[in-house]
Amino acid sequence: EIDYQTLIEQDDALALTKMGFSHMVNHIDIVGWVVLIVMAFMSMATWFYVVYNSARLFVVRRRGPKVVDRFWEARSPTSAREELAAEPYYEPFSKIAIDAIDAAAHHASSGGGRMTEVLTRHEFIERSLRAGLRREGVAFDSGLTLLATVGSTAPFVGLFGTVWGIYHALVGIGESGKATLSVVAGPVGEALIMTCMGLGVAIPAVLAYNYFVRSNKLLANEFATFADDLLNFFATGERVRRAQKYGTRPQAEVNA
Question: What is the pTM of this model?
């Protein structure tokens, strides 16, 4: 006697094996492959910028205070420039300081020319510092547009794959005339996997975007504070925020 219940259970168990990733890869069409490739590219680009920006922020935050201290501890702007010029190209504080040093030297070298008639020393250095701050801020925004794009579009790319899988399930039902698990398992599995992949690509991109935007704002505040100190120094000859001149340290540090 045929045990129909056992046959049904075996058929269902076999159908469930069609819902895996390997089965999907072996049976999807060209549209499914395009969706997979697009999401794979999005994921690789996301993690590249996550690693790259994280490493750069880590290095800059570690080197930044040392670079600032080296500037204030130098005996003169000229000696400070020589030291800071040796910093790596990606180090922002040294570049901002060099902008201020070069602007002050350039304005002084113009003597009584037209530059000094149009812009005061303070104004000329301020313009140079603003340009430097914009340059360094833009440099640290690299990858944010891509992260925002991936975070907003990856779910819809995955949703397109989901819809395409459901479409295949409906086609299978129409061709077989029955809606059994063995007929719809493969397409439904494809749809579910595409949904998970879309979310798996989008969520890290959104989290990374929010983290880097916040970190860049904090870093921009540090740039602005340093730029204000530079402007005050070249305008008055003293570091107003700490009342510290070149080549000197606060008495408390000396006694320590």
Answer: 0.76
Q: What is the mean pLDDT of each run of 10 residues along the chain (256 residues)?
A: 44 55 73 90 95 93 91 88 89 93 84 62 88 91 92 91 80 67 68 87 95 94 92 76 49 41
**Cα–Cα distance between 245 and 226 in angstroms, integer?**
15
| Long-range contact set of residues 45-53: C-beta below 8 Å, sequence gap at least 24 | 45/146, 45/150, 46/146, 46/147, 46/150, 46/201, 46/204, 46/205, 46/208, 47/204, 49/142, 49/143, 49/146, 49/147, 49/208, 50/204, 50/208, 52/143, 53/140, 53/142, 53/143, 53/208, 53/212
Quickly list H helices, 111-180: 114-118, 121-140, 144-176
